[in-house]
Amino acid sequence: MTTGDYDNNGFADLVVSGTSVGNEPGYGWSYILPGTASHEKPLPITAVRGGPVVASGDINRDGYDDLVTGEPHSPDDGGENMTGGMVGVYYGSPDGPAGRKGPGSPPVCWTQNSAGVPGTNERGDGFGTDLSVGDSNGDGYAYVAIGVAGEDIGAVADAGAVTVLRGSAKGLTSTGALSVNQGTKNVPSTVEKGDKFGGQVSFTDPNGDGRFGLLVSAPGENTNDGYVWVFSAGRSGLTTSGSWTYSLSAFGGLRTDALYGAAIDD
């Protein structure tokens, strides 16, 4: 679930997402319940393609929240299961979330095959495993962090990665795209099979400076102990410099098989 004021009427709208079952299983759908001053009458519910992962924020700084959806195991047009995943963007408008041709149309879609996006779309990558939206450099344009927990790093299977795309006046852009994994310079730890780095992502601003850093988890780290990485942000956006990591043991817990970071509250 996520909330956002997609029509900029001053009331938060609720999005509930999931995947289809039956004859065409695996397709993501999201249901938008608009917020109003009164809930005495049944509210119209709008269904849009995309999910079960969702996040919200103002990507193009127009005052309308935008809806971002993730289908990490999206069936392709031919119905085959387990492609590399897809992320969709619906931009806010007076009529609510709007796709590439306006309200009621499909979203603006991003995959690892999109121009400028790091990586290559491969079955099982899980592009869109998790999503978070936040402004990392304080310019008012929100970034989108995309978990790619099934990404192979070299010959290491399911090591995982995170892709970060920037917001702009024209919407989400691959210009200046960032890809981070455990083999990236200044990132603690090493690339290992099954770590699933990027299993969860969450922008956070603990010091309240208006520049959101990023939490990234790898629930499979150290054979399912799980760890969380902390990346700082500044005027140039996110940086791996000074990044650090912690596990459940930092809080006095037993980390063995804890799957720490399997869920991060956004």
Question: How many strands, what sense, and barrel or not for the largest sheet?
Answer: 4 strands, antiparallel
Shape: globular
Order of strands, widest sheet = 1-2-3-4
CATH architecture of the domain at 111-266: 7 Propeller
CATH-level-4 superfamily name of the domain at 111-266: Integrin alpha, N-terminal
CATH class category name of the domain at 111-266 = Mainly Beta
Give an overview of the whole structure.
The chain is mainly β and 266 residues long. It has a domain at 111-266: 7 Propeller (Methylamine Dehydrogenase, Chain H), CATH 2.130.10. The protein is 2% helix and 36% strand. It has 1 helix and 16 strands. The strands form 4 sheets. A 4-stranded antiparallel sheet has the order 1-2-3-4, with no helix packed on it. The protein has a 4-stranded antiparallel sheet with strand order 5-6-7-8, with no helix packed on it. Strand 9 and strand 10 (143-148) form a beta hairpin. The longest helix is centred in the last third of the chain and has 4 residues, at 221-224.
Keywords:
mainly beta, 266 residues, 4-stranded antiparallel β-sheet, single chain, Methylamine Dehydrogenase, Chain H, 1 helix
Quick recap:
This protein has 1 helix and 16 strands.
Compile the SSE list and pairings.
Elements: E1 2-4, E2 13-19, E3 28-33, E4 46-49, E5 53-57, E6 66-71, E7 86-90, E8 108-110, E9 127-134, E10 143-148, E11 161-166, E12 173-180, E13 200-204, E14 213-218, H1 221-224, E15 227-234, E16 237-246
